[in-house]
Amino acid sequence: MERFTTSFTGYRKEEVNKFVADCIKQVEGMIDSLKAKDLEIEKLKSDLEKYKSLEESLNKAIIMAEDTSSQIKRMATDESTRIVNDAKRNASRIVNEALMEAEKVQMENAALKRNIITFKKRLRMILENQLEMVDDIDHLDMK
């Protein structure tokens, strides 16, 4: 605390004026400091609002990305299921066609075997008839 010297008429005017001037300077410094702090607070509030807005936008983007990801996963799952089902149907069709072709080949094979047996029988009959004719040549009277 400041102490003033006294004179015949009271406190010394110069000391009081100097003290008051110093107080005014300090108060003005405090006011300027408070104004600067107020400006900084307003700037920080503005920045905070920008960041909150940015955070909200990012949260919305994240939610959209998650939804899109879920949709893509679901579509991929559906597509893979469809592909697997198509492959199973195609596999069943191919197996059925192969079985039918195998059955057809077996039937053709059986028909060929019957034809070979019939051919052998006819050829045997022809050969036996030819042999009988050869044998009959001996019995012919050659005159």
Structure commentary:
The protein is mostly helical and 143 residues long. It has a domain at 6-103. It has one helix spanning 13-139; strands spanning 6-7, 10-11. Strands 1-2 form a two-stranded antiparallel sheet. The radius of gyration is 59 Å and the shape is rod-shaped.
Key traits:
143 residues, mainly alpha, two-stranded antiparallel sheet, 1 helix, 3% strand
Spatially, the strands of the biggest sheet line up as: 1-2
Largest sheet: 2 strands, antiparallel
Task: Look at the structure and give the mean pLDDT.
Answer: 91
The level of helicity is over 70%
Strand content: under 5%
Question: Uncertain regions: pLDDT < 50 for 5+ in a row?
Answer: none
Query: What's the SSE pattern?
Result: EEH
Distance between the termini: 180 Å
Rg over CA atoms, rounded to whole Å, is 59 Å
